[in-house]
Amino acid sequence: MIKRGANKGLPKPHEAKVHVKKNDTVVVIAGRDKGKIGKVLQVFPRKGRAIVEGVNIVKRHMKPTPYSSGGIVEKPAPIHVSNLMLYCGKCKRGVKVAKKILEDGTKVRVCKKCGEIIEPKE
Ligand SMILES: [Zn+2]
User: Fold this and answer.
1) What is the secondary structure of 71-109 as a DSSP string?
2) Quick check: is 106 in a domain?
3) For 40-79, what is each residue's pLDDT tens digit?
4) What's the start-to-end Cα distance of the chain, in Å?
């Protein structure tokens, strides 16, 4: 690819960052599952997508194998992170987050509205 000035500053695919992390609680703000709240099970930063518990459920028809009887399996499919917002348990809604560094040096994300720390407990 020819390098152009216009592409300067854009993240390379392998450097792509998403605003959600595994175990985050997020709200779906667009699409079929709008308004749903779920836990992030997996993140694909390069694709900018994440799998959220109970969101974007697709039905897969499985053939019977010696290990399972087959049938219809429901599983969550990846959803684009731009459709997700971090959920603040205090505001009871999806919120924008700010970064904050605690006294011990730990970086945390906090709710821009109420200042509550939004980090998965684990
Ligand atoms: Zn809040």
Assistant:
1) EEEEEEPPEEGGGEEEEETTTTEEE-EEEEE-TTS-EEE
2) no
3) 999 999 999 999 999 999 998 888 888 878 888 899 999 9
4) 43
Rounded to the nearest angstrom, the distance between the alpha carbon of 87 and the centre of ligand 1 is 8
Q: Quote the domain boundaries for residue 67.
A: 12-88
Q: What is the mean pLDDT of residues 25-40?
A: 96
CA 105 to ligand 1 center in whole angstroms: 22
Q: Once rounded to an integer, what is the mean pLDDT over residues 16-32?
A: 92
| Within a domain: 112 | no
CA of 122 to the centre of ligand 1 (A): 20
Is position 33 within any domain? yes
Q: What is the mean pLDDT of residues 91-111?
A: 95
CA of 92 to the centre of ligand 1 (A): 7
Based on the structure, what is the number of domains in the chain?
Answer: 1
Q: Ligand 1: distance of its center to the CA of 67 in Å?
A: 46
